[in-house]
Amino acid sequence: MRKSKVYKKHPVQPDPVYNDLIVGKFVNHLMRDGEKLVAFKIFYRALDIVEEKTKKNGLDIFMKALENVAPSVEIKRRRVGGSTSQVSVDIRPCRAKFLSMTFIIKCAAKRSEKTMPVKLANEIIAAYNGEGEAVKKKEEIHKMASSNKQNFVPTKSR
User: Fold this and answer.
1) What is the DSSP string of the chain?
2) Which of 60, 94, 130, 135 reaches 20 to 30 Å from 123, CA-CA?
3) What share of the chain has pLDDT > 90, as a percent?
C-alpha cells in the first residue's frame, strides 16, 4: 500500500496589527466556522487584557507563553512483531508550535470565566508564569514520554 501524496503547506497570512505569522496561525486555530474577524477581535481583546493585567507588552507575553507550553517529546505507537508499544519521539519545531497553540486554545475554552477574550487572556498569563492547564498538559506528555522511554531498534527482516 502506497503512502498518500504529500501536499505543499498553505502559506499563512500575517495578522494586520502585529504583522506576525505566528499570530496569524494562532488566529486560524482560534477561528470557528470561518469567522476570522471574530477570531481577530477575540485575540486582540485578550492581548489588551494581558497588557492591562501585567503592564508589559502583550505580544511578548504571548510568545513566551507559547514557548512555555510547547512540548519537546511526544508518544507514538509502534507495532513491533505482534504487539504495539509506545515510543517517545522528538517533535519538530512546527509540530511543537501547533501543539502549544491547540493546548492554549482548548484549555482557555474550558475555563470558567464569562467571555472568550478573558478566558484566553488568563490562560496566556498562566502559561507565561509556567502554571495553568496548558502547562500541566505539556508536563503530562513529558511524564508519559519519560516513563515509556525505550530504545526502539527495528530488527532486520529475513
Assistant:
1) -PPPPPPPPPPPPPPTTT--HHHHHHHHHH--TT-HHHHHHHHHHHHHHHHHHHSS-HHHHHHHHHHHH--SEEEEEEEETTEEEEEEEEPPHHHHHHHHHHHHHHHHHHS-SSSHHHHHHHHHHHHHTT-SHHHHHHHHHHHHHHHT-----PPPP-
2) 94
3) 46
Q: What pTM does this model have?
A: 0.82
Give the domain extent around 142. Answer: 21-147
> In CATH, what number is assigned to the domain containing residue 31?
1.10.455.10
Q: Among all chains, which residue has been given the C-alpha cell 494581558?
A: 50
Residue 15 lies in a domain: no
**Mean pLDDT, residues 138-144 taken together:** 88
Residue 16 lies in a domain: no
Statement: residue 112 has pLDDT above 70: yes
Domain count, the chain: 1
Q: Is residue 153 part of a domain?
A: no
